[in-house]
Amino acid sequence: MSRYCDTAPAHPVHARYHACEYGFPQRAEHELFERLVLEINQAGLSWETILRKREGFRRAYDGFDVEAVAAYGDRDIARLLGDAGIIRNRLKVLAAIHNAGVIRGLRSSHGGFAAWLDAHHPRPHADWVRLFKKTFRFTGGEITGEFLMSLGYLPGAHRADCPVQREIAALRPPWMRA
Predict the structure, then answer these.
(1) 124 near 79, Cβ under 8 Å?
(2) What is the dihedral of CA 111, 106, 33, 165, to 10 degrees?
(3) Global pTM exceeds 0.90
C-alpha cells in the first residue's frame, strides 16, 4: 500500500479518504454496509470512480440504511439500474440488496454486522474470503481483503511510516489486537 500513501495525501479525491477513513475502525452498521457496497462496486473500476460517485450511492441506497435496502423490490431495482449517479450493474445492485438482508439477519445471530466481524476475528485472509463468499454475494478475495483492510480488520492499509498509520495505531484497530 505504500503507493497509496505516496499519492493520496495530495490528491483532490483520495486525500480525505486516505487521511480520515482508510484503515480506521468503524462500528456503525450503515458505515460497514456502505463500505461493503462501495468495495463491491469498485470491482473492475478505479477507487477514484467510486469515491466520485459516493454521494450518488448514499442517495440511491437511502443512506445505506440496511432495513430500507433489504426491503427493495422490483421498482427499486429498476430505479437503481437507471441511476447514472451510481454503478448500474445488475449483479452489483442485486448483491447490495441481498447483502442488506444478510446484515439484517446478523442482528439476530450475532447482535449486528460489527459483532459478526468481531466473532470471526482474527483469521487469515483466505479464511475471511471463504467466510465472505459463503455469507455474502459478490465478495471475492480482492473485495473481501480491501473491505477488511479499510476497516482495520486486516493490516496493510498504510505504510508503517505514514502519519495516518500512527493515528490508526492509537485507536488499536482489530488487527493490532489479534
Answers:
(1) no
(2) 60
(3) yes
- Whose CA is closest to 144, among 13, 36, 19, 21? 36
Active-site residue list: 17, 39, 47
Angle between helices 90-110 and 74-81 (to 10 degrees): 130
Residue 52: name the closest of 94, 11, 10, 5 by CA: 11
Beta strands in 42-151 (DSSP E): none
**Dihedral through CA 35, CA 27, CA 175, CA 47, nearest 10?**
20
Domains in the chain (CATH in brackets) are 1-25+155-178 (no CATH), 28-151 (1.10.340.30)
pLDDT at 121 over 60: yes
